[in-house]
Amino acid sequence: MSPHVLREYALLADGERGALCGPRGDIAWLCAPGWSDSAVLSSLIGGTGSYTVTPTETCVWGGFYEPGTLIWRNRWVTTSTAVECRDALAYPGDPHHVVLLRRVEAVERDVRVRVRLDLADGFGRRSLRELHRSGDGTWTGRTGDLRVRWTGAGDAVPGDGGLGFELTVPAGGHHDLVLEIGGRLPDPVDVDSAWLATETAWHRDVPELEHTVAPRDARHSYAVLRGLTTGTGGMVAAATLGLPERSEAGRNYDYRYVWLRDQCYAGLAAAVDEPHPLLDDALRFSTARVLDHGDRLLPAYRTDGTPPPDETTLKLPGYPGGSDVVGNHVAHQFQLDSLGELLQLHAAAARHGRFDGDVQRASDVVVRLLTERWDQPEAGVWELEDEWWTHSRLACVAGLNALAREVPARHGAQLSALADKLLAETTSRCLDPRGFWRRSPAHTGTDAALLLPPVRGALPADDPRTRATLAAVRENLAEDGYVYRFAPDERPLGEAEGAFLLCGFTMALACAHQGERTEAFRWFERNRAACGPPGLFAEEYDVRQRQLRGNLPQAFVHATLLEAAQRLS
Questions:
Q1: Nearest Cα to Cα of residue 277 among 239, 231, 213, 238
Q2: What are the two backbone dihedrals, phi and then psi, of residue 137, each rounded to the nearest 5 degrees?
Q3: What is the pLDDT along the chain (569 residues), one digit of tens a residue?
């Protein structure tokens, strides 16, 4: 099937990998066995692989997640009846063994669905081979170096490089399909046990969050973040690659890696009230990277702790308006703000009794790196050209202040003195004559990212610089309830790029920091509505066309929604 608009895709994830399912029951994206491996289902970006379960009759679509899980239910109403397909990656995932569960349910009357599996590793280059159907109707085969087993598809017939058939499910009944992929396959999955284990694990791992201002959405965001987080503790920034921020603009990236900054955002959101396990995941992964790499610390890593590969292309058409880029140039950057976010994470660890052993040692390394490098040009939060970015320095001020406040006996005076030095120098270089923070000494205008450091403790809420910057962002970077990160040129907002949903939720936090609760709720409600039926957020939102833009789902957007939902309560 042709790709759909992003708002119509649902995420299936088990921590070790993720799949996107479209409104026609078409799973168009799945990398295996892990997040940054090649895709075995890649029709999302023009590859040949897809896995479809869809009604044979004309139908309209809807769907929903079972509460607190990433178990997705496609629901179609046809001209004669209703049919549902319950989809999930068995959770928690095995790093070496993909288990994709699909259960077709006839709600009222007999239903007939069309099933098609076109599995092709290497982003569509290596199709299914060595296909064999056993006596019980189980199909086995290979794609690239991966073995495949498909149960529940005994009536399938080979054709056009895949397997397909039509299935009739009697009224009130269901039919299970189980797809397994891995370098080696264990004994076949017991489907009822796999469903029960998946339900149980999701209910165990996702908190209720009933005391937030938006319990359902907060819980769903936590589930998304949980689904993006591997057994190593690393949380990928998004499940996809190459989805365009702007059609044919060339800003297409591979986000299937762990950005330390984004993981800190998730950890901080998980530490607002009681400490949830996502805090421990963030601490575990980031601490290991700091201690392993020290002076060579990168902004992002694969989930196994190795650097992401350099950018290459696949010679595929790409998602419409985007490109087929694989890898990321971030491994060649230094991003100072990540050091400030790490210190804020360490302060949250101290607040919840987790500041000991390796976390203490990692904190010392980060403070040393910050002391040595705070005055150097770097790429900043938006990963632009190296510059003396204001936000990076203020993020470090916030981190130093937070750590000094939480562990005063451990170099607290030294940390506070360094924070004061950074703030004084940043004020000297980056404060606009009109009183607000400029993006950098060389860039006029402000940046919506500058709203966050005061919330984190870089400056008081009543500081004139804080208030002037909030007013400047409202006046110059906001439109119709959404916020743009900065004005890149003289064009009107929205012509260069979409609004950044991260910035919209940050605006809600900044207003709450000022005590403006009504305004905070307006920003929060407006931005949490910028999603489709599956409740997933991409990085950007096209305000005029009301469409999501960029890779999906964007973890740091879900993290700031989760934080705002708690802080506004």
A1: 231
A2: 90, 10
A3: 789 999 999 999 999 999 999 999 999 999 999 999 999 999 999 998 899 999 999 999 999 999 999 999 999 999 889 999 999 999 999 999 999 999 999 989 999 999 999 999 999 999 999 999 999 999 999 999 999 999 999 999 998 879 999 999 999 999 999 999 999 999 999 999 999 999 999 999 999 999 999 999 999 999 999 999 999 999 999 999 999 988 777 788 999 999 999 999 999 999 999 999 999 999 999 999 999 999 999 999 999 999 999 999 999 999 999 989 999 999 999 999 999 999 999 999 999 999 999 999 999 999 999 999 999 999 999 999 999 999 999 999 999 999 999 999 888 899 999 999 999 999 999 999 999 999 999 999 999 999 999 999 999 999 999 999 999 999 999 999 999 999 988 899 988 899 999 999 999 999 999 999 999 999 999 999 999 999 999 999 999 999 999 999 999 999 999 999 999 99
- Give just the sign of the alpha carbon dihedral 228, 92, 53, 29: positive
In the 3-class helix/strand/coil scheme, how is 263-332 assigned residue by residue? Answer: HHHHHHHCCCCCCCHHHHHHHHHHHHHHHHHHHHCCCEECCCCCCCCCCEECCCCCCCCCCCEECCHHHH
- Nearest-angstrom CA–CA distance, 253 and 368: 31
